Fold this sequence. Notes:
Blueprint: E1 4-5, H1 15-21, H2 31-48, E2 53-58, H3 61-72, E3 78-83, H4 86-89, H5 91-97, E4 101-106, H6 115-124, E5 129-133, E6 135-136, E7 141-142, H7 145-154, E8 158-162, E9 187-191, E10 202-207, H8 209-217, H9 228-236, H10 247-263, H11 265-284, E11 289-290, E12 301-305, H12 312-321, E13 324-325, E14 327-328, E15 337-341, H13 348-364, H14 371-381
Parallel strand pairs: 1-13, 3-4, 3-5, 5-8, 8-9
Antiparallel strand pairs: 2-10, 6-7, 9-10, 11-12, 12-15, 14-15
The chain binds 4'-deoxy-4'-aminopyridoxal-5'-phosphate (PMP).
4'-deoxy-4'-aminopyridoxal-5'-phosphate binds next to helix 3.
Amino acid sequence: NKEMLLIPGPTPVVDEIYEALAAETWAHTDPRFVSVFANSLKLTKQLFNTDGEVFVIAGSGTLAMEMAVVNVLAPGEKLLVISQGYFGDRFVPLAQTHGIQVETLQAEWGQQVDPGAVADKLARESFKAVTLTHVDTSTGVVADLAALVPIIKRSGALLILDGVCAAAALDEDMQKEYGAPDYKIDLVLTGSQKAIGVPPGLAIVAFGPRALAAREARGLVGGYYVDIKNWLPIMENPGRYYATPPVNMIYAFNRGMEIVMKEDLPRRYRRHEALGKAVRAALSTYGMKPLASEQAAAPTLTCFLYPEGVDDLAFRRALAAKGVVIAGALASLAGKAFRIGHMGNVTGEMFSQAIRLMGETLTEMGHAVNSEAAVAKFREVYQF
Ligand code: PMP
């Protein structure tokens, strides 16, 4: 009986992926490994439908953020950070470390950024690039790509999309046209540990043609490991050497990507949409309130405000003792809310159980609720 790791990443890892991870470590130049690596890159290109290049290297999502930023922006150039929470904000010090001039547009926690404010900002000033966090993991707010991509692209800026809490659960098609032929996402970044369902350890970045051209036009990049120019030959032919790839993580990633692609992307996206709706509907019956409105709520995780009088640590500890691990909330929401991930290779059965155990825990803590009704609500909404 495995623990149910329902934090917003890392997410539960299925046995097939653990088996891949535990396989014998081959030489990174062994043709058998090279073909696994090449296959995982091919599948990653399909995931983002990019006609550019993908980079999969040892690291975490933050390294992927840094690779995205430093390869397209030179010191002194201007970046607009659109932030809907803690992870959006992370781009600010990250870019400043590299001497990039940063301005921010912040939404109130739990709200989506106002497209009108973005349009105004971009009409008044020009930026080389704009960062947008597809789902901010601190708030459970999803960015409105349909509204924002055309506004950002109309300004001529490059669009960097942080897909850490979205890739493989929400559509991030890089050749999709958002209203005009060249209104496309230029760069998407993620990590292995969220909706892809692989343990943490890989930074994944997809550069579209305009982003690749921006790197080409740029001089020296302030970092050796992060410079995509050094990685390009390897991603084109993974038999070449630049820095030793994490062989076993690549086995696991390849298996994870096979699982993602086999499910079929549109179906995987619909499953996450349905799961998010069902978790919110079910837990709302306990008096827990999603921070984001239903229209702004992410399919991958929800930040719930506790009902009056529930102690955060006591609740999460008691629940963990029953085998369900959820996460606390960040910054000013700490103690007042919790976050639950509903992404990756998870099942409706898992959530039926987790929702029941959450209800039992609340009841044991003196906040009597009806677990059976909540599970029934979940099953009614999660038609998958
Ligand atoms: N961006 C988002 C949206 C995230 O959720 C996270 C991690 N929670 C990161 C970036 C940073 O990724 P990592 O922790 O893997 O460095």
